[in-house]
Every structure is written in structure tokens, then in C-alpha cells.
Amino acid sequence: MQMGIESKITSKGQTTIPAEVRERLGLQTGDRIAFIETEQGFLIVPRNRPVSNLFGSLAEYAVPGTTVDDYDHAIGEGIGDHIENSSRKGGSKA
After folding, report:
1. Is the pLDDT of residue 84 over 90?
2. Which residues neighbour 10 within 8 Å (Cβ) at sequence distance 6 or greater?
3. Of 27, 45, 54, 67, which is the most exposed, with the fewest CB atoms less than 10 Å away?
């Protein structure tokens, strides 16, 4: 298993996203990110980018005839459901 890029968490729960990761994600100062839990771990997803930037990256999961707006709507619902379910279980809101 390949070790990834590491970052230290401060006593306040903060961390610096390493420059290589920021560059690869296209993150800039002031950008917002979401942490999406998957079966394999967490994804870090830029939140203030249009879904069209990601379109095609999940081609193996694509449904023929689905539009970018369809995916945008589904992602928004999924994130909302995740946050709602987390808050019901006593987790914190994103």
C-alpha cells in the first residue's frame, strides 16, 4: 500500500493542506472543501467549483442520458442527506 502525503493536525483540529495536494485539486485561498465519507475512506472535494469540472471523471458510473444538472442535483441531495443523517446520530454538521 502506498503512503500518501501527510499533514499534522494542530491542537485546534486544524491542518495545512500540502501544496502538492492543493495544486492537484486546484484549490486556492478562500476555496471551500467538503469531506465525503466513502467505503474506502474520505474524499476531499472542492465545494465552490461547478460539477461540470468533475463531469466525466466518474465515467464508469455514468447513466446514459444523464446531464450535468442531474448530477449536480444528486450530489447536492446526497451531501444534504449525509449531513442530516450525521446530525441525527449526534455528529457535527459540515
Report:
1. no
2. none
3. 67
Contact by Cβ (8 Å): 43, 63: no
Rg for the chain, CA atoms, rounded: 15
pTM, entire model: 0.47
Contacts by residues 27-36 (CB-CB < 8 Å, ≥ 24 positions apart): 34/79, 34/94, 35/94, 36/79, 36/82
Give residue 93's region: left, alpha or beta (phi > 0; psi -120 to 50): beta
pLDDT above 70 covers what percent of the chain? 72
SS3 label, residue 36: strand
CA distances from 25 to 16, 17, 33, 43 (A): 14, 10, 10, 11
Rounded to 5 degrees, φ, ψ at 85 are -65, -40
Phi first, then psi: what are they for 4, rounded to 5°?
-90, -165
